């Protein structure tokens, strides 16, 4: 069975819990005391991931780090519909990879701001927030133009991909880093659509979609 | 924002960090009531606290006159910017040797300390915010309970609270009706007692100690003092962190951030019985920091 080395409040770990929930895959978790215990810097964990970062998975003897890399692996291996990671469509695969890299930028800005405010990490908070706003502006425009063309998701497909999963957590948690989303209406509507995907699951700090219509 | 001028708050003991996370000799910087403080454990493991200054780099270099009052209690370093009382409020259960005593975490939260206390006292949010853990629909009713302001102990006591909980603690193996007692023995600290799933004669103790950074930001220190022989520390901490992570967005979205003490300021649904008692108690003490006092 897949083992996820997990910290509940980590948005990067949540990306994998989300995908596995969408795919209906069973897995077990090994809790890592990321905070306050800093167990991701402990000797045993550094053997799994010398970068000292969550998440890590183990599957059939394969040890893999980096949320985006793990999304690729899990979707390629366990999604029979081949929609979350569209292996048969090179152009779409390129787009997915482009937005996976973008998601890592969201981690280094929006997630950094949240770590600063909530867990007292010594980061440049103004730079983190400004960086997140810059990325949110780009994504909001991208999603808005997509909506004009009848596209609901980040990539040019009629269904969500792992790019949507990779971008979602640190956007939905951005307020914990003092980054409001009121100026990004297309992002807000997209968040609501993500929450309505069958199999969606929450993490601590994320709430399910409200009843009724798509948010304005 | 001006620094704290509230004499009641200045004279209290305030928590500033967990002993378990202090590295011997290592200096930690923090903010209390808008003042930058440093603290460290000295060679004897005793806490030393001082107002941060660039020329003082360690606990042994602090001139005696510059030290702030310091104590180590319930696993945390406490200090005061005024003249604190001789004793901190009692938690007798902390001395019981078979309890697991842990700092679940210290989290920064964009909320006033009184708003955070009030949320801690409110059972009504359990099914909606802590769904499938501390509550679940249709068990949403907050049944009648008792609240008193104990004059001799100068604290608020809410008793006979009951709630159906699907997963009351890491030691639970299913849903149960859980009894609660809440104490507010300090304007910014609260202690709750809930039925233990492993010993029906005893209760788990969970406390939240709020360090006011300024009027609208706290560091929330969460003490666990629970009965659980099976789970690892990190599993017990994770449970409490999950709960707190669910409260966090709710706390951070409270408007206004400071707690209005005027009984007419907010609807009685939000300000239920224990909240009304808490607000009245803060008013009686003349507290102005972190609140919107009743207009004179
Ligand atoms: N690119 C990595 C970043 C992972 C990451 O930042 N993980 C955080 C926890 S959510 C972490 O472990 N940080 C500790 C560190 O970077 O030292 C990924 O997407 O998995
Ligand atoms: Fe709560």
UniProtKB/TrEMBL annotation, chain A:
Key words of the record: Transferase
UniProt xrefs under SUPFAM superfamilies: GST C-terminal domain-like, Thioredoxin-like
Protein name: Glutathione S-transferase
Keyword Transferase: yes
Ranges where the GST N-terminal domain occurs: 1-82
Residue ranges of domain GST C-terminal in the record: 89-212
The UniProt record lists the keyword Transcription regulation: no
InterPro entries in the cross-refs: Glutathione-S-Trfase_C-like, Glutathione-S-Trfase_C_sf, Glutathione_S-Trfase, Glutathione_S-Trfase_N, Thioredoxin-like_sf
CDD domains on file: GST_C_7, GST_N_4
GO molecular function, one term: transferase activity
UniProtKB/TrEMBL annotation, chain B:
Source organism (scientific name): Mesorhizobium neociceri
A Pfam family this chain is assigned to: VanA_C
Domain of life (superkingdom): Bacteria
Signal peptide location: none
Keywords from the named record: Dioxygenase, Oxidoreductase
GO molecular function: dioxygenase activity
Protein name: Aromatic ring-hydroxylating dioxygenase subunit alpha
PANTHER family: 3-KETOSTEROID-9-ALPHA-MONOOXYGENASE, OXYGENASE COMPONENT (PTHR21266:SF60), IRON-SULFUR DOMAIN CONTAINING PROTEIN (PTHR21266)
Gene3D superfamilies: Naphthalene 1,2-dioxygenase Alpha Subunit, Chain A, domain 1 (3.90.380.10)
Domain (Vanillate O-demethylase oxygenase-like C-terminal catalytic) ranges: 110-284
């Amino acid at each position: 069975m897949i083992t996820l080395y997990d910290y509940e409040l980590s948005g990067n770990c949540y990306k994998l819990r989300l995908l596995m929930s969408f795919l209906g895959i069973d897995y077990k978790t090994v809790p890592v005391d990321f905070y306050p215990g800093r167990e991701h810097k402990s000797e045993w964990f550094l053997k799994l991931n010398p970068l000292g970062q969550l998440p890590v998975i183990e599957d059939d003897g394969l040890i893999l780090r980096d949320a985006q890399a793990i999304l690729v692996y899990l979707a390629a291996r366990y999604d029979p519909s081949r929609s979350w990671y569209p292996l048969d469509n090179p152009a779409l695969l390129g787009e997915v990879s482009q937005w996976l890299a973008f998601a890592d930028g969201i981690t280094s800005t929006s997630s950094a701001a949240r770590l600063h405010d909530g867990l007292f990490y010594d980061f440049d908070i103004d730079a983190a927030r400004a960086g997140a706003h810059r990325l949110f502006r780009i994504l909001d425009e991208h999603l808005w133009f997509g909506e004009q063309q009848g596209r609901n998701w980040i990539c040019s497909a009629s269904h969500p991909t792992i790019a949507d999963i990779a971008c979602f957590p640190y956007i939905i948690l951005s307020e914990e880093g003092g980054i409001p989303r009121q100026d990004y209406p297309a992002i807000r509507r997209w968040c609501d659509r993500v929450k309505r995907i069958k199999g969606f699951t929450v993490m601590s700090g994320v709430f399910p979609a409200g009843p009724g219509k798509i948010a304005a | 924002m001006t620094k704290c001028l509230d004499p009641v708050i200045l004279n209290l003991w305030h928590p500033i960090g967990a002993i378990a996370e202090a590295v011997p000799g290592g200096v930690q910087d923090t903010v209390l009531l808008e003042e930058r403080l440093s603290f460290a454990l000295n060679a004897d493991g005793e806490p030393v606290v001082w107002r941060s200054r660039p020329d003082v780099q360690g606990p042994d270099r602090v001139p005696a006159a510059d030290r702030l009052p310091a104590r180590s209690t319930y696993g945390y370093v406490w200090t005061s910017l005024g003249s604190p009382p001789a004793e901190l409020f009692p938690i007798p259960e902390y001395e019981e040797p078979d309890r697991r005593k842990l700092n679940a975490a210290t989290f920064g939260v964009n909320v006033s300390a009184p708003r955070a206390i009030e949320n801690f006292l409110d059972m009504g949010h359990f099914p909606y915010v802590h769904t499938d853990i501390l509550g679940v629909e249709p068990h949403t009713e907050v049944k009648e309970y008792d609240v008193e302001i104990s004059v001799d102990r100068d604290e608020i006591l809410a008793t006979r609270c009951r709630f159906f909980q699907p997963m009351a603690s890491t030691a639970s193996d299913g849903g149960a009706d859980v009894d609660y007692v809440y104490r507010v023995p300090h304007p910014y600290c609260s202690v709750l007692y809930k039925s233990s799933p492993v010993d029906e004669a005893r209760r788990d103790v969970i406390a939240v100690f709020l360090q006011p950074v300024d009027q609208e930001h706290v560091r929330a220190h969460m003490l666990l003092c629970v009965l659980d022989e099976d789970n690892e520390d990190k599993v017990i901490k994770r449970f409490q962190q999950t709960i707190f992570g669910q409260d966090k967005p709710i706390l951070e979205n409270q408007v206004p951030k400071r707690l209005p003490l005027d009984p007419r300021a907010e609807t009685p649904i939000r300000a239920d019985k224990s909240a009304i008692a808490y607000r009245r108690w803060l008013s009686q003490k003349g507290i102005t920091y972190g609140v919107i006092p009743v207009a004179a």
